[in-house]
Amino acid sequence: MKGLVxxxxxxxxxxQLGEYKQRIQSLLQRxxxxxxxxxxxxxxxxxxSKQKALxxxxxxxxxxxSVQESYKEETEAVDxxxxxxxxxxxxxxxxxxQRLDEQVLQLHNQLQGGLLIDAxxxxxxxxxxxxxxxxxxxxTQLNELSKQYTEYQTLFxxxxxxxxxxxxxxxxxxxxxxEELSKDVAVAFEDAYALHKKLSNDVTAVLKDRTAAFKLxxxxxxxxxxxxxxxxx
Length: 233
Prior knowledge:
This is Dynein heavy chain linker domain-containing protein. By secondary structure, the protein is mainly α. Helix content is 76%, strand content 0%.
């Protein structure tokens, strides 16, 4: 029995030793690019979360204790590395988020021009449908990218960026209350008209004209907002 216990203890120590060595190799990495850096931070946090369980099974053999010390040193070193690089990586992430937001705005502009407002395609909208499908696919890609960036910000303990421009493209039209929107537009038009009457400058004129132009679209919006209207329509 004594020999069996000894063999089991030896096997456990060997396993623990291998585990520590593997972890040290992971901690030695020093990635230079954002995506690899994010993966590295995730690995470090995962290793830390499992540290108590690993330490619980650790024997007091000298070689294992030595490896533990090495692991502790590398943990401290990797903490310093992460702290020294997280500022730079945050700047890269901010730049990526800004670029994503600009791409969303470009797609917004694309939806306001080109084939989508060309009346010659009214009878045969196949080209328009193809264009819309392309925009939809790109928006889906950008939406997935925004989720990834939000995960990065959470990992870096940052306040997640609200992708309002992208969010506006993802909201299903059927969730918009047409009646409430119509009331809001009517109030906005009255306010814009009153403001222009009071101030009468170029800015109030543009506001009044833009609000009036949007108000003209409301009958169509109300028709589309009819619950009886399905996607096939």
